Amino acid sequence: MASSNASNDFSLEGKGALIVGAEHPVGRAAAVALAEAGAKILLASQEPGTDKQLKEAGKLVNAAGIKPVIRVQDAATRADVSATADLAAKELGGLHILVNALDTPAYGPAEANDDTAFDKIIENNLKTVWMSCQEGARVMLARGGGVIVNITSVLAERGVPNAALYCAAKAAVLNLTRALALEWARKGIRVNAIQAGWLDDASSPANKDDEFSKTLLKYLPDNRLVKPEDLGGALLYLCSPTAGFVTGESIAVDGALRARV
Questions:
Q1: SS3 for 77?
Q2: What does the pLDDT average to over 231-253?
Q3: Which of 107, 166, 219, 237 is catalytic?
Q4: What's residue 3's pLDDT?
């Protein structure tokens, strides 16, 4: 009996989940984790022109037993984000879970970044999250609440050279999460974050065969990068009834990287 109750606590059966940034490895892994828990899934892109990646993610969700809705959108366009939130509510029987897996890595010397680079990095890593939270909450508030999880980076709390603007944007997402959690706590919306460690991703500088990547791997406690699938357990917990009184928090999935001085 205890085992059955515990299983039910992590069930997302009947819940509608929108994953924004589903073309990214982290977004794809998030969608599969929630589908395996029984959630109905809408896969939405961060950028247009990602049809192929979304279809690949859709196949994995299908394999988990859920037929997803797929929508190619531009997460930097308000009208697109708003329409996607409405579509999720319509197609999934309500928008109960929103996962923002929005990310555009940006690395380079601080002195080489001009105002155009600033605007692009902040828009793609912060403004998109802000708009997605706003539009998702608009739908959730009309239907009694929901859960928002923003996937950010350990660089939200740890600065590294040659990533000043990226670190600043990720830190802003973390504090945005806390502020929205306070604002919506009495309105039925929980808002939490996951801080991902250095990801095993093709776009990551950690995967380049150079001095930086070799030094980084030696520094990592587990001597390996974080796989996107490693985030699934933390995400499922934050989205599930088990975490019903957890809001304004962040969980680092980094193999103890932040435990280092």
A1: coil
A2: 97
A3: 166
A4: 43
- pLDDT exceeds 70 at position 5: no
Q: How many CA atoms lie within 13 A of 218 on its CB side?
A: 6
Q: Cα separations (Å) of 101 from 21, 46, 68, 98?
A: 5, 8, 17, 10
Residue found under tokens 């500088």: 205
Least confident of 1-5, 107-111, 198-202: 1-5
Our CA dihedral for 20, 24, 29, 35, rounded to 10 degrees, sits at 40
Distance CA 6, CA 50 (A): 38
| Pairing, β 40-44 against β 97-100 | unpaired
Q: pTM to 2 decimals?
A: 0.94
Q: What average pLDDT is seen over the chain?
A: 94
pLDDT of residue 209: 72
SS3 221: coil
CA 236 to chain centre: 12
166: annotated active-site residue: yes
Closest among 89, 52, 51 to 71, alpha carbons compared: 51
Q: Give the bridge partners for 100, in sequence order.
A: 20, 150
CA 80-189-237 angle, 5° bins: 100
The amino acid sitting at 103 is: D
- 83: amino acid identity, one letter: A
- First vs last Cα of the chain: how many Å apart? 44
Is the dihedral angle over the CA atoms 78, 82, 83, 84 positive or is it negative? positive
